[in-house]
């Protein structure tokens, strides 16, 4: 067993941290926060592309660096720390992954190098309005290779060049690739709770599309895709939680109330100890997820759900309680607490909310139990 | 025990309902009231005046001040009925709940005659100028200084800074806690004044909040002259006055806040269920959490009724009312996360500017976090419950018997 990042991965992480501290201080995140129409920070995106991060998990034959998913997880943790305002989740964990997993050879050749080179920004379009999405009930239809329907909200949908869309065709629910800059596509930007991530409504009207993997079995395919992304996002959540903890530790060591620094009060100590506990539990679950992801383990659905639930719980608690530790200051725009409050909620919702993942986890446990008991 | 209205209370409730049905102006969650502050103020003032004309503003206040001389239970009944229609905007909560009662308790007759009635009618708005950058929970640590003017007028000259002052930017008056004597322990050198917010030397700078709204402010005092006649209570006796205000605060801000479990149920009933079957309200886990939410908020409402019972019998309410704000604020947060969860990805779409259900829960998302801090943080309120209610030993206090001056010096040298 080797339940940690390798030495090279630790170096990669350290390198990423130094770079992001320089290239993505909160002022960069705030640029997008203040001007959501920007969609993302172009210069940070350029840096990230130059470093090869968009192609980290893409094999060399398709223009990537072919390092692998654990390396991607290492980078994700660092991007999560700094609340990076770039479409990395959508492009790398979702779009690229969909092509890698289910794309035809031709699709891989066409699309993956463009992701590695930063020319293609991707997104995943599932939801059709408020509430849980089920692929079998999608209203968006594909007839003879043309898509009609409306998807909202779509994270990074306003800035992406391509989308993976869950829709129904003659052969049932499927996943389709659409060029968003092509004909039959119109987009409106939506106001976002976390304005550092773009949100859009995308209307398709007879838009040309290509099926992914024959366009069948959308339910299963989508689940695989979300499982894979959930593990990587869990690392972003761990990174974010850790940053919140650090901010609370620093602030509470400098803030006085009743003649003492507030970190001398047990209420604050226990709060931050709880935060640490949740974060470490999340980290361990995320590591297990990374193992399952990088080895394509059969256990991936369980590992991914556990990583997602623990990651979400840790980051949301961290964001809430770090803000609480900052008192009235924490509720100001000027402090970064709300960047994490917003992003933690955004990450909690973008791959489907916790109730879905709780359900998945328990189903996995029930199945495992059946297998073990030989039933 | 009887949770139904007495005959007298039922008659009052009926009368209130009829009056509200005939006179209600608009709902506070109308779109323009949520996004346009001057529209909000205009509506709030008009509604308050209407209530005052019918003696429904400040029901328990003496008739001489424009109240009804009514019972607390009548105020509670009115609040409940008004809340059902979403009529109250909260613009006067701090003023009429905390500041003006303090003025009524500590000011002279002439001052009261001048200030109380217009406040009750909503013609003038009040704010609470207590917190400072380095004195929030520890509000007795305020540094804003008041010194006697050297012209023998008896006036005070005030310099310093207040912060997080809700509504200061639209307030006409405020009550301000200042330091008049730094050479005694911190609680003993404070004095309270009321101030005209238009006085020369006061400048108000709105603060942009985490929620991207601007409800609270920095308030700077730069050589502000305050006549001694505006003093509330004794010189250096301000802490007693502040405690009076804060007692009222805990009662005022304990009420229902934001969207609640009823709205959550309504939202869930209109959303698809897990796995594409039924509605979100059919999910067992959701139902379990909704049940917990109901018990918490309904339990809080009933706890307030217990306090009212005690009051109506002429007894002092028990300590159980101290749980109000700490429970209500956290509930706002919990309910918001549940609601955004069942909206799933749509929870990421910001609808704060509209009165849609998602928008109201997003409002909770931010204001739950705010209310856990405003008016006494969760941690401070739990300290109060454990120490004052449960009688557990107080924290070791390092700042009790030292002069304020040496306290700040000690801190300057250590920091
Ligand atoms: C929305 C909003 C509106 C407000 N409106 C007003 C207003 O109108 N007028 C006004 O005067 N003020 C107002 N305030 C200020 C508010 O009263 C203070 O923010 C609050 O009392 C906390 O003080 P602080 O911000 O200095 O935090 P601090 O006191 O610095 O607290 C920081 C953290 O330390 C914890 N802590 C502090 N002391 C202890 C202790 N002894 N034991 C354990 N934990 C402790 C706190 O719980 C908190 O988590 C408002 C605040 C908000 C958020």
From TrEMBL, chain A:
One of its GO terms (molecular function) is flavin adenine dinucleotide binding. InterPro entries: Acyl-CoA_Oxase/DH_mid-dom_sf, AcylCo_DH-like_C, AcylCo_DH/oxidase_C, AcylCoA_DH/ox_N, AcylCoA_DH/ox_N_sf, AcylCoA_DH/oxidase_NM_dom_sf. It comes from Solimonas terrae. This is Acyl-CoA/acyl-ACP dehydrogenase. The keyword Methyltransferase does not apply. It holds the Pfam family Acyl-CoA_dh_N. Coiled coil: none annotated. Residues 226-352 form the Acyl-CoA dehydrogenase/oxidase C-terminal domain.
Automatic annotation (TrEMBL), chain B:
Keywords: FAD, Flavoprotein, Oxidoreductase. It comes from the Bacteria. Residues 7-123 form the Acyl-CoA dehydrogenase/oxidase N-terminal domain. Residues 237-390 form the Acyl-CoA dehydrogenase/oxidase C-terminal domain. GO terms for cellular component: plasma membrane. Its cofactor is FAD. PANTHER family: ACYL-COA DEHYDROGENASE, ACYL-COA DEHYDROGENASE FADE34. Belongs to the acyl-CoA dehydrogenase family. This is Acyl-CoA dehydrogenase. It comes from Solimonas terrae.
């Amino acid at each position: 067993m080797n339940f940690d990042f390798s030495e090279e991965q630790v170096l990669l992480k350290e390198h990423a941290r130094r770079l992001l501290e320089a290239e993505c201080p909160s002022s960069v995140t705030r640029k997008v926060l203040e001007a959501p129409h920007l969609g993302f920070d172009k210069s940070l995106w350029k840096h990230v592309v130059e470093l090869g991060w968009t192609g980290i998990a893409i094999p060399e034959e398709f223009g990537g660096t072919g390092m692998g998913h654990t390396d991607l997880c290492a980078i994700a943790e660092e991007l999560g720390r700094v609340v990076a305002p770039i479409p990395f989740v959508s492009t790398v964990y979702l779009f690229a992954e969909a092509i890698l997993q289910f794309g035809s050879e031709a699709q891989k050749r066409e699309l993956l190098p463009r992701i590695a080179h930063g020319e293609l920004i991707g997104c995943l379009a599932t939801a059709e309005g408020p509430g849980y999405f089920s692929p079998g009930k999608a209203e968006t239809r594909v007839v003879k290779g043309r898509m009609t329907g409306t998807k909202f909200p779509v994270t990074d949908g306003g800035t992406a060049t391509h989308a993976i869309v869950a829709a129904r065709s003659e052969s049932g629910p499927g996943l389709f690739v659409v060029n968003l800059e092509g004909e039959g596509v119109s987009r409106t930007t939506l106001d976002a709770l976390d304005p550092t991530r773009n949100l859009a409504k995308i209307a398709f009207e007879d838009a040309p599309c290509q099926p992914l993997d024959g366009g069948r079995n959308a339910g299963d395919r989508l689940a695989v895709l979300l499982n894979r992304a959930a593990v990587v996002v869990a690392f972003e959540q761990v990174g974010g939680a850790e940053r919140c903890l650090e901010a609370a530790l620093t602030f509470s060591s400098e803030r006085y109330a009743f003649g003492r620094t507030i970190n001398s009060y047990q209420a604050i100590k226990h709060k931050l100890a709880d935060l640490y506990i949740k974060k470490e539990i999340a980290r361990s679950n995320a590591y297990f997820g990374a193992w399952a992801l990088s080895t394509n383990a059969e256990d991936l659905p369980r590992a991914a759900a556990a990583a997602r639930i623990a990651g979400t719980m840790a980051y949301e608690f961290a964001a809430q309680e770090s803000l609480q530790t900052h008192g009235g200051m924490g509720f100001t725009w000027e402090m970064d607490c709300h960047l994490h409050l917003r992003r933690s909620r955004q990450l909690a919702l973008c791959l489907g909310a916790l109730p879905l993942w709780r359900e998945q986890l328990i189903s996995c446990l029930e199945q495992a139990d059946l297998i073990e008991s030989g039933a | 025990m009887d949770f139904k209205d007495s005959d007298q209370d039922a008659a009052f409730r009926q009368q209130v309902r009829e009056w509200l049905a005939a006179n209600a102006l608009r709902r506070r969650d109308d779109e323009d009231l949520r996004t346009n502050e001057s529209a909000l103020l205009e509506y709030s003032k008009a509604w308050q005046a209407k209530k005052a004309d019918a003696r429904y503003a400040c029901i328990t206040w003496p008739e001489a001040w424009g109240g009804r001389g009514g019972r607390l239970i009548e105020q509670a009944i009115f609040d409940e009925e008004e809340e059902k229609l979403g009529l109250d905007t909260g613009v006067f909560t701090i003023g009429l709940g905390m500041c003006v009662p303090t003025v009524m308790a500590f000011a002279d007759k002439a001052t009261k005659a001048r200030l109380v009635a217009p406040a009750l009618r909503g013609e003038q708005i009040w704010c609470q100028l207590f917190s400072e950058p380095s004195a929030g929970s520890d509000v007795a640590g305020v540094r804003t200084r008041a010194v006697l003017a050297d012209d023998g007028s008896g006036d005070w000259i005030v310099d310093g800074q207040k912060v997080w002052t809700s509504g200061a930017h639209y307030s006409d008056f405020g009550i301000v806690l200042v330091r008049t004597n730094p050479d005694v322990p911190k609680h003993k050198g404070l004095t309270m004044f009321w101030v005209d917010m238009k006085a020369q030397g006061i400048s108000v700078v709105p603060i942009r909040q985490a929620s991207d709204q601007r409800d609270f402010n920095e308030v700077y005092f730069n050589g502000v002259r305050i006549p001694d006649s505006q003093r509330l209570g004794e010189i250096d006796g301000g802490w007693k006055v502040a405690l009076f205000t804060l007692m009222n605060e805990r009662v005022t801000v304990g009420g229902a806040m934001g969207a609640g479990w009823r709205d959550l149920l309504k939202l869930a009933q209109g959303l698809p269920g897990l796995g594409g079957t039924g509605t979100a309200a059919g999910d067992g886990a959701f139902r379990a959490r909704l049940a917990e939410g109901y018990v918490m908020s309904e339990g809080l409402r009933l706890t307030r009724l217990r306090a009212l019972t005690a009051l109506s019998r002429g007894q002092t309410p028990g300590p159980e009312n101290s749980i109000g704000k700490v429970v209500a604020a956290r509930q706002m947060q919990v309910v918001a996360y549940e609601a955004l969860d069942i909206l799933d990805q749509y929870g990421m779409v910001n609808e704060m500017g509209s009165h849609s259900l998602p928008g109201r829960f997003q409002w909770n998302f931010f204001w739950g976090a705010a209310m856990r801090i405003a008016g006494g943080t969760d941690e401070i309120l739990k300290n109060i419950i454990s120490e004052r209610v449960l009688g557990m030993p107080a924290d070791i206090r390092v700042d009790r018997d030292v002069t304020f001056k040496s306290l700040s010096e000690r801190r300057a040298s250590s920091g």
